[in-house]
Design goal:
By secondary structure, the protein is mainly α. The protein is 79% helix and 0% strand. The mean pLDDT is 81.
């Protein structure tokens, strides 16, 4: 196990190096001259040249690349060009609010998705299966903006069950007061495609010979579905969950923007709007690294879900 983990970590190094080179190239050739962004429209040539010197932009490309590599290795991307706050501090303070919403959302989405998918797969072709699949199709056809505006208006503004928006410095208050409505909206948006996807995973296993053998041995349908089928369907389910985790931090920007949650997703949008390149670069590298680590975690979870899986 340790040898496998060490090998996978070693394999990540070339991938991370490629990401660093790509990000450096994109921001150097596509992002424009940061000195003009920082100096403003009214700056003179001397001010722009001074800023270029401070940022090291007057150095050869290989020197600039070396500076960027050092920033990645130390995860120190300097200060935000807009707020002056250290980028590392921005990410560390924005991570908590995002996790407060996204972790419960992921757990609920995965748990409910598995239960509903098992239920409809058990009654495949029946009224329950057809009705739930129809509801999923309708749910997937509705824009997330409709869910956001409609549920925020009805549940928060009209009924007053939740605050319209806001956030505090207390984890308990955020979980019980401010996070439930964004979680509920995120669940309404994501549950329909999740159930349809998990249903397909489970139905692929239901057709296998080992399921017919288990039924022939007299095992109950609940034991067959919950033990044998779910264990084998767990592999693609784990893949789906782990692959989506890094993207959730960026994809949740609408929830964070509508509910004024100071998370990673909202920070990405603000950084793009302000051309705050240090923040954008840091988040890009962080998401790439998180993607590689969740891929490793997925491999380890495969073995935990099914001991027959061989790592290597």
């Amino acid at each position: 196990m340790l040898a496998f983990i060490a090998g996978r970590l070693a394999q990540m190094l070339p991938t991370l190096a490629g990401v660093v080179l790509l990000v450096f190239a994109l921001f150097h050739w596509v992002g424009g001259d940061p000195a003009y962004v920082l100096a403003g429209k009214m700056a003179d040539a001397a001010a722009i040249a001074n800023i270029r010197t401070q940022l090291g932009l007057d150095q050869p490309l290989y020197v600039q690349l070396g500076i960027f590599v050092q920033q990645v290795l130390h995860f120190d991307f300097g200060n935000s060009w807009v707020t002056g706050e250290p980028v590392a501090a921005i990410l560390s303070t924005r991570l908590g609010p995002s996790l407060t919403v996204l972790l419960p959302l992921t757990v609920l989405e995965t748990g409910l998705g598995i239960v509903l998918a098992l239920l409809v797969a058990w009654r495949r072709g029946g009224l329950l299966d057809r009705g739930l699949m129809l509801a999923c199709t309708v749910g997937m056809s509705v824009s997330i903006l409709v869910y956001l505006i409609g549920m925020q208006y009805l549940l928060a503004y009209r009924l007053g069950w939740f605050p319209v928006q806001g956030w505090s410095n207390q984890l308990g208050e955020n979980l019980l007061r401010y996070a439930p409505l964004p979680i509920l909206i995120g669940l309404a948006v994501s549950l329909a495609p999740t159930v349809r996807l998990y249903r397909s995973f489970i139905l692929d296993e239901v057709q296998q010979d080992y399921v017919r053998t288990a039924r022939a041995k007299g095992l109950g349908e609940g034991r067959v579905m919950g033990l044998h089928v779910l264990r084998n369907a767990a592999i693609p389910i784990i893949t789906h969950v782990m692959a989506n985790l890094p993207a959730l931090f960026i994809g949740a920007f609408l929830l964070e923007r509508f509910f004024n949650i100071p998370g990673i997703g909202r920070e990405v949008i603000l950084a793009v709007e302000r051309s705050d390149f240090p923040v954008i670069k840091a988040i890009t590298i962080a998401v790439a690294l998180a993607t590689m680590l969740t891929s490793l975690l997925a491999d380890l979870l495969y073995r935990a879900a099914d001991p027959r899986v061989q790592l290597g």
